[in-house]
Design goal:
The protein is built from nine helices and seven strands. The chain is α+β, with helices and mostly antiparallel strands. α3 crosses α4, α7 runs parallel beside α8 and α8 packs antiparallel against α9.
């Protein structure tokens, strides 16, 4: 024990000092690289502004050339450059204003440029109108020259400032690169030293890790054995729990049918309660057994050709009497009544029973509506179960398919359930090669979707 502690302390001491040095150098290099990135961003930003100023200048030159050509010749084809120029000017102004928002001086220059630019555009428009009406005079051109000179002056001033900033940024980038290279060259020997120490440490670490992996493998085998025992226990206990339920259910039916003598109304109600709870317990036991089988991939599936129309008719017949109470409705929509898929009909029915059971629980007391049906998407069939009841809260939606999970809100606290139905449904659908998901705005209504592949017979 003392030798082990001494060796461990030695490695800590050997690695600690160079590791701190390496970390410090790495941190400084990282900061310098961040500065370089920042400077590069500044260079790119400046280049964008310079490019926009060049575009704006070109826009006004195009506009100026077009108007001048039209004024001299009267030929409207000369106005093409004018229309091209004025089409892009406003967009370029807006981009320039956004790019200079971080520089108050350049922002003011941009505003001045925009004002002068609009004045220049108004002047060009006056020249056009005057030419079209034969009222052109030299005063227009004098104003035009002065306005254009002012635009050039503002653009030149902005270009000068941006060029200056660009030079500073480039200089900073170069300085940053030199400093980073110096730090790397200094830190390189430290990296070599740490690498050597790391190799030595890795040797001892891997030696220890091999021993640990061997121990973990043994523990894994032990856990697997325990898991198998749990599976056997789960099967045994569910069987033992189901065994007494059979005579309870049988005797309840016998008592209700007067086979063992007549009973009073109160006795009949008590027997009904016993029978109902026996069925609930049987359902719970089946859910626990199915959940366990899904976990260990031992749930059996019997694939067969299943007619979707007949499948939905059975679902409708089984659930409509319960749903249709208090004016509620179950609506069934099937696009292709001859559609056939190869699946486990019983397990798929189990999924629908779970989804419809949930929909019924959260359905409004009156005017409830549950819709079931199919759609087709490429070579897949999409089943859906849609209700207009309480939606699934957005902050609970990531947990909805977990075992034993209950959505705990004040509106749902009176709603019972094991919390296994959706987890079992997800497991069944996935082992059938499909997927299940849902959509809900969190307030009202939920739609569950099941996607399965279509058989070649479809």
């Amino acid at each position: 024990m003392k030798t082990g502690i001494s060796t461990q302390s030695m490695f800590v001491i050997i690695l600690l000092i160079p590791s701190i040095a390496f970390s410090a150098i790495g941190f400084v290099v990282y900061l310098q690289l961040q500065y370089e990135i920042s400077y590069n961003d500044s260079v790119e930003h400046t280049q964008k502004i310079v490019g926009l100023l060049a575009n704006i200048k070109e826009d006004f030159l195009n506009a100026e050339t077009g108007v001048r050509g039209f004024t001299i010749t009267g030929d409207e084809s000369y106005l093409d450059p004018y229309y091209v120029g004025i089409q892009d000017i406003e967009s370029h102004f807006n981009q320039l204003q956004a790019l200079t928002s971080d520089n108050q001086e350049q922002q003011q220059n941009t505003i001045k440029l925009k004002i002068k630019g609009h004045e220049r555009l108004d002047n060009l428009e006056k020249i056009l109108q005057a030419k079209k009406h034969g009222e052109i005079n030299l005063a227009f051109f004098d104003d035009s020259k002065q306005s254009m000179d002012e635009l050039r002056m503002i653009i030149s001033e902005m270009l000068s400032k941006e060029s200056s900033q660009l030079s500073v940024s480039k200089s900073n980038v170069e300085d940053s690169e030199k400093l980073a290279l110096q730090l790397i060259s200094v830190g390189f020997p430290v990296i070599i030293m740490i690498s050597v120490l790391s190799i030595v440490f890795l040797y001892f670490y891997m030696k220890k890790r091999t021993r640990m992996e061997f121990e973990l493998e043994n523990k894994s085998l032990q856990m697997k054995e325990i898991d198998d025992q749990k599976s056997e226990f789960s099967t045994m206990i569910t069987h033992e729990l189901k065994t007494p339920l059979v005579p309870i259910t049988v005797y309840c039916k016998m008592l209700k049918s007067d086979m063992l003598g007549s009973i009073t109304k109160e006795q009949l109600e008590a027997i009904s309660v016993i029978e109902k709870n026996a069925k609930s317990l049987d359902h719970l036991i089946n859910d626990i057994l199915d959940a366990r089988k899904l976990d260990v991939k031992k749930l059996k599936f019997n694939l067969e050709d299943t007619n979707i129309k007949e499948f939905f008719d059975e679902i409708y017949t089984g659930h409509n009497p319960v749903i249709s109470q208090n004016g509620n409705k179950l609506v069934m929509t099937i696009l292709d009544k001859n559609m056939i898929i190869k699946t486990d009909k019983i397990r798929l029915r189990q999924v629908f029973d779970n989804l419809l059971s949930n929909a019924i629980k959260f359905m409004p007391e009156k005017n409830g509506l549950i819709q079931i049906g199919t759609t087709k998407e490429e070579n897949n069939i999409i089943f859906y179960v849609k209700d207009n009841g309480l939606g699934i809260p957005l902050d609970k939606q990531d947990e909805i398919f977990k075992k034993f999970y209950q959505v705990d809100t004040s509106a749902r606290r009176k709603i019972t359930g094991t919390g296994l139905g959706l987890a079992i449904s997800k497991g069944i659908v996935e082992q059938l090669g499909g997927k299940i998901w849902f959509e809900s705005d969190g307030v009202r209504g939920t739609t569950f979707f099941i996607q399965l592949s279509l058989s070649e017979k479809t």
